[in-house]
Amino acid sequence: MKRIVSIQDISCVGKCSLTVALPIISSMGVETSIVPTAVLSTHTQFKGFTFRDLTDDMLPILDHWKKEGFKFDAIYTGYLGSIRQIDIVKEYFDALKGKNTAIVVDPAMADNGKLYVGFDEAFAKEMLNLCVKADITLPNISEACLMLGEEYPGEEASDDVICDLLKKLVKAGCKFPVITGVTLDNGTFGFIGLNSESGEFISYGTTKVPYKSHGTGDVYASAFTGALTLGKDVYTALKIATDFTAASIRNTYEDPDSVNYAVNFEAEIPYLLKLINEN
């Protein structure tokens, strides 16, 4: 059985971060280990949430794992709460990466051109340094711009603008950056990526649903990492993640009883497994 470790926070209510990564990756038949970076009562859409910082537990966990000799097929990071946590995650990469271990970084820190509360430009620059150590990087448009210090072009940025951002991410040292949440010039909604080794751009989009929600990036990154670990090539894994996330959003949009803080990804897990089997 393949094994992934995901390093990010736990929001007890909200369907994001580890409460998304665990069920999605496990449903794909991949063992899912975790390093919780913090525990929140809810995600940050809610007011008055509780927050327990677990930074001081991260290195002791790593020390124990090194003693046990644990190895992983993939290391996947999401929301990290501080520069210190980023530095610790670099130690995880150095200690746990084997010859065939894939490192996936989702630099979850911004939306709509603005950093999340508590982050600054120094954090964004340090996140770029973490992305440089990854095999695959999955920023949205906002995160790509903030890491590069570029002006935010808006959510409707053209393919040419996105490709230019990708070239700059590669120049900064990223091996295979993929910008997600892109409205492609043909009107579909998906991703554009750039393979630094081949110089090839890849893209794919599906029908756009007029609905935005917390946690969709986590759904996407989790499905992608699981598919990649099962042996799918990067493009196929990205396509699977795109189709699954779009289905989860569509399901929520069409459900009159859906919650207003997350998507119905659970209802679409059978579709995810179908995608895995068919691709």
TrEMBL record:
It comes from the Bacteria. One of its GO terms (molecular function) is ATP binding. Its EC number is 2.7.1.35. One of its GO terms (biological process) is pyridoxal 5'-phosphate salvage. Pfam families: Phos_pyr_kin. SUPFAM superfamilies: Ribokinase-like. This is pyridoxal kinase. Keywords: ATP-binding, Kinase, Nucleotide-binding, Transferase. GO terms for cellular component: cytosol. It comes from Butyrivibrio fibrisolvens DSM 3071. It is an enzyme of class 2 (transferase). InterPro entries: PM/HMP-P_kinase-1 (IPR013749), PyrdxlKinase (IPR004625), Ribokinase-like (IPR029056). Residues 51-253 form the Pyridoxamine kinase/Phosphomethylpyrimidine kinase domain. Gene3D superfamilies: 3.40.1190.20.
